[in-house]
Specification:
Blueprint (H helix, E strand, L loop, with lengths): L30 E6 L5 H15 L4 E6 L9 H10 L2 E5 L3
Parallel strand pairs: 1-2, 1-3
Length: 95
């Protein structure tokens, strides 16, 4: 099993939690786009994100995208699909 390390250090700044509307989908099926940039494990990392989000809201659906190359912008086709199919998007990279 892949485990990810959270590199955040302790901070003296108080964390202020906030509610995200995207996680309140009891009335609607919401679709979240997950855009990997093509680095190794970027898709695996986004799958882990989806798994955690699914525990918060079982109504969420996910669409997976991968640019295939971290050094180029997302294609017009990918951007169009995200815009028309998703209400939110999360982007990530792996190494």
């Amino acid at each position: 099993m892949i485990q990810y390390h959270d590199p955040q250090a302790a901070t003296s700044i108080k964390t202020t939690p906030y509610d995200l509307a995207i996680l309140d989908s009891a009335e609607h099926k919401l679709t979240v786009g997950l855009l990997a940039n093509g680095f190794p494990d970027s898709e695996n990392f986004l799958q882990q994100i989806a798994t955690v989000l699914q525990t918060q809201d079982a109504n969420l659906r996910f669409e997976y995208y991968n640019k295939g190359n971290a050094s180029i912008p997302a294609s017009a086709e990918i951007l169009h699909s995200i815009k028309t199919q998703c209400q939110a998007v999360i982007t990530a990279y792996g190494h």
